[in-house]
Amino acid sequence: MAHNNNVQGQTNPPDFASLFGEDNSAEDIPENGERMEIPDDFLEDYNEEDDGHELGDGEEQSLGMSGFPEITKNIEDKPHKFFDDPEYYKSALGGEGDSSARVHATLQKYLKAKDPKDRSVFRMQLIPAFWEFLMNVAKKAPGRLPECKKFLLRFGLLHPSFLKPEIRTLFAQIITENVHNQPIYYLDEWLKAVGTGVIKNSSTDEARVARSNKSAHLMQLLEKAEGKMNGTKVLLRTKDAERQSLEGRILERVSHIAEHAPLDAMPEIGSCYTETQKRTINEVQELLKNLLKADREQDLYIRDFVQAEADVKTIQGKIEEDGGVVEVDLKAVETEFDTVRQMAKMTIGRQGNHFPILTSEYLYSAQKDLGYRENVISMLAWIESIDTEAFCRVYKNRLNRIVPYVVLIPSYGDFGMCWEPYDRFNRATSRGRIAVPMFSRNLQLAVLTAVADLRWQVAKEKASYYWMEEGITGHYYQWFQKNKMKGDLKESFIDDYILWMTKESDGVQKLDKELRGTFWRYLPFAQQVKERLKTRNFVYQELYQRDINRSMSDGY
């Protein structure tokens, strides 16, 4: 891939000592610019375990929505006060046993180190120590986390003073709840959903829930039943719209058939059908056949919907009988956390910055490039406004919109990625899974790489054994081979997709002529984009005309 993986990797390690004044002692870590005294017995104080596992309400997601909501409010008007708590650091580390002691001790050594080589060694020791500590915090995510631990998982924020005051204020203004009801999750929310069985593990081979965990098993059955019900609901709406359209066309043509000009000799008598009316009668007969077919299909969809709705109610009843208490699957949380750690590595790349703690020294993102939920929703909406089928899959010969799960990874990566195109046990309505780094230099590119990866993997899985021959993957592979291109095939596709979305959609020709034609057909722009482009250049006008020719020959 032609991405610059080493942009952040060349940055010098952060000078945390500059945050703490001339004295590098970690015992005097400041809070919001003031020194915070950490007592000598601090390591003993924060080893007390927190056993709180009170569960919150599950988050219901819906399929088949027409588009993303418009984001009218990007951040809160007033920042919250959690980052002003002088006990934030102590509370964040507290209750996690030896792992928190290792983080604290290694951080002390890192801050005190004068020699760059020593600093580098302690930095490398701090990374795995912090991830091990974070695993212990992650196990508590399905319960009720203290705010400091929630932000620790969500942003990697170990101490508020690691951020400059204006950046700290911005993070305190980020909307904490999923008010838009979109399948976009911060890490703490994602681990809670996985741990309570609302969402399966990303590692599909280990996604099976133990039979003894009845509540989590019921939640998975409920998710499948709701997915089937929502998918059938989409089909019903589509089929009903088709039937109404056919009825409208029939009424229009019948009214045309009923028009008769009066005979000259006998004005009270209407003339015979014209040749045009006779053709219309034949057309109406064909439309009536299609109408009956659509009605039969709608009857089947109604039956499927009624059955799916009954299944949902049955499972919900069983959950209520069990008291609605959801058991926490800690093994699932551990497995998912390991998966997320791999996601973080992949969003960063080998040459990137793998430091897991949020600090201003490494944060280069402007507000518009911070990957918090509202910004990501806006970016996904922009992508869909150009590539209208970006989040669509074919189900029963219908194109259905299924937005993937988006996991917001607290990393300094620059590249989003697709972890799963869809659940292999539910190809019809299951969501894919993409990961987006929160602290990238360019959020547009980070989200585009994730969507491009999703596009490629969905098409490849759909084509199965014929992925080198059919669809976008087949045509791209053949073009790649014919032109003797070098490098990784999928990474090359991702780069070209980015050009397609950022340049070609504006009429700037960057792709090979043949490849442009392939993308035009298999990754079509929205109709309004096509209408605009056809007036810009003969190249796009010719592609637009091809669409018309294919539709007339019924070969599209």
Quick rundown:
The protein is mainly α and 556 residues long.
Keywords:
single chain, 556 residues, mainly alpha, 4-stranded mixed beta sheet, two-stranded antiparallel ribbon, 17 helices, 8 strands, 50% helix, elongated
What is the fold's blueprint, element by element?
Elements (H helix, E strand, L loop, with lengths): L29 E2 L2 E2 L6 H4 L42 H6 L4 H15 L3 H23 L8 H9 L9 H9 L10 E3 H9 L18 H44 L17 H47 L8 H19 L24 H14 L5 E4 L2 E4 L3 E5 L7 E4 L12 E5 L5 H21 L7 H12 L6 H14 L10 H10 L4 H8 L3 H15 L4
Parallel strand pairs: 3-6, 6-8
Antiparallel strand pairs: 1-2, 4-5, 7-8
Description:
The structure is a single chain. This protein is mostly helical. It has helices at 42-45, 88-93, 98-112, 116-138, 147-155, 165-173, 187-195, 214-257, 275-321, 330-348, 373-386, 443-463, 471-482, 489-502, 513-522, 527-534, 538-552; strands spanning 30-31, 34-35, 184-186, 392-395, 398-401, 405-409, 417-420, 433-437. α12 packs across α13 (471-482).
Largest sheet, in brief, is: 4 strands, mixed
Task: Tally the beta strands.
Answer: 8
Give the end-to-end Cα distance, rounded to a whole number of Å.
32 Å
Task: Using the CA coordinates, give the radius of gyration.
Answer: 29 Å
By oligomeric state, this entry counts as single chain
Helix share bin: 40-55%
Overall shape? elongated
Helical element count? 17
Q: Which structural class is indicated by helix and strand composition? A: mainly alpha
Major sheet strand order: 3-6-8-7
Q: Give the averaged pLDDT, no decimals.
A: 83
Poorly predicted regions are 4-64, 204-212
